[in-house]
């Protein structure tokens, strides 16, 4: 559209508008854009071909399974029978577990005992042949377990027990000889066998083992057991040396009565009476010697005897 010349002088705005319109007519790029009939907005592609090619692939159809509505399950409390059954099952499981643990502990204890028996100290008393059906019952070693200052006294106590055992055996033989010459003394022979079977092991367990343990561990309680039992043993030695008739002892009374009708039997019985007298004298001497070295004086024995705990556990130290 062209402006017509005016008779009036042109204003500044009209001059600027005229220059701008002419410049558009002269610029080919402006003319090309304004004359193009294509819609550039519709031709714009925000996704290039190289990006859409990588996204192309088979289309996975959506699941056609109709969705189920969520259903809430009603809460049910267990019945008392079910609770009791569950508790019983739990107790049974615990019992089985405890039994397995007990069996395991017993197995381990047996292994430890077997190892201790193989590596520890083996019993050596009494020393019996390997073919003998009875094994040694105690471990006894004066040089290893008894202190040097008490070893001599402890050995003397052991020799006294051995001498007493030999005396009991000779007493049985003397009573047997007395019974062969006079059948009225069969009671003495029977009782002599009983004293041999009874006093030999009991004297070892009741007064020698306690004094051995007392010297070994310096135990006041073991000394108390020894003094109490060994004092009774001294009384028995005196009775045996006296030789009361029909008591099963070849003492002085029975030996003097036997020598009147058989001198050989009387001599044997007098020898046994000397042995019983020697046992009585030696027992008194040893009692004084042990009393002199014990850590528990005689004045404290009465206090120890009043302790019920000591009295109830006395049998444990005898073995």
Automatic annotation (TrEMBL):
InterPro entries per the UniProt record, alphabetical: SCAMP
Which protein family is named in the record?
Belongs to the SCAMP family.
Membrane topology listed for this record: Multi-pass membrane protein
Instruction: Provide the primary localization.
Output: membrane
Annotated stretches, region: Disordered: 39-87
Q: Which UniProt keywords apply?
A: Coiled coil, Membrane, Transmembrane, Transmembrane helix, Transport
Localization in the cell: Membrane
The protein in question is named Secretory carrier-associated membrane protein
Q: Which domain of life is it from?
A: Eukaryota
Example of a GO biological process term: protein transport
Species this protein is from: Hucho hucho
Q: Which Pfam families match?
A: SCAMP
Coiled-coil spans are: 88-115
């Amino acid at each position: 559209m062209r402006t017509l010349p005016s008779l009036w002088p042109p204003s500044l705005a009209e001059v600027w508008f005229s220059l701008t319109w002419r410049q558009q007519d002269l610029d080919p790029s402006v003319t090309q854009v304004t004359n193009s009939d294509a819609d550039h907005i519709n031709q714009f592609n925000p996704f290039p071909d190289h990006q859409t090619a990588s996204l192309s692939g088979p289309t996975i159809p959506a699941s056609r399974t109709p969705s189920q509505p969520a259903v809430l399950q009603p809460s049910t409390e267990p019945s008392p029978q079910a609770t009791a059954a569950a508790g019983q099952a739990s107790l049974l499981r615990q019992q089985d577990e405890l039994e397995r643990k007990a069996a395991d502990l017993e197995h381990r204890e047996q292994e430890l005992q077997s190892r201790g028996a193989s590596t520890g100290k083996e019993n050596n008393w009494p020393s019996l042949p390997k073919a003998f059906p009875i094994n040694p019952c105690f471990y006894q070693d004066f040089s290893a377990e008894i202190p040097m200052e008490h070893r001599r006294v402890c050995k003397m106590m052991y020799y006294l027990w051995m001498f007493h055992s030999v005396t009991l055996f000779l007493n049985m033989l003397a009573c047997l000889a007395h019974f062969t010459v006079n059948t009225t003394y069969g009671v003495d022979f029977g009782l002599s066998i009983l004293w041999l079977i009874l006093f030999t092991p009991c004297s070892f367990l009741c007064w020698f083992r306690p004094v051995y343990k007392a010297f070994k561990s310096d135990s006041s309680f073991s000394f108390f057991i020894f003094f109490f039992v060994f004092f009774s043993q001294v009384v028995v030695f005196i009775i045996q040396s006296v030789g009361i008739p029909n008591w099963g002892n070849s003492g002085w009374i029975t030996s003097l009565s036997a020598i009147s009708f058989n001198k050989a039997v009387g001599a044997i019985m007098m020898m046994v009476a000397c042995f019983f007298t020697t046992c009585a004298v030696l027992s008194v001497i040893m009692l004084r010697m042990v009393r002199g070295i014990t850590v528990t004086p005689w004045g404290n024995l009465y206090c120890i005897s009043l302790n019920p705990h000591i009295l109830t556990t006395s049998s444990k130290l005898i073995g």
